[in-house]
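Hello forum,

I keep getting stuck at the same step: I have a sequence, I want structure tokens, and every attempt I make locally crashes halfway through. Rather than fight my setup again tonight, could one of you with a working pipeline run this one for me? It's a single chain of 81 residues.
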Amino acid sequence: MPKIQWSDLPLALRDHLFDRARERRITAEDLYALKLWRESNPDAPDGLWYKDFGSFKICGEGMYPKTFLLPGQPAKGDEIV
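Reply #2:
Ran it on my machine without issues. Output:
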């Protein structure tokens, strides 16, 4: 199974992720939790997916992370545990 890609993202996608993290006030502590999860080298499921960190969610499609959501915002796809 392919892995979620975190580096060499298309420029527009990278900028979108940074914008959403800023707009949704993802904290340094939240980003550290994301970093630890990223270091586990998670698999990239086919289609839509999300990972719920409690204080935020990261959503993606296939091997690409796509956006950040706030806790109350519904996510589509399969939850990665």
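The helical segments are 11-23, 28-39. If your local run keeps crashing, start a new thread with the error log.
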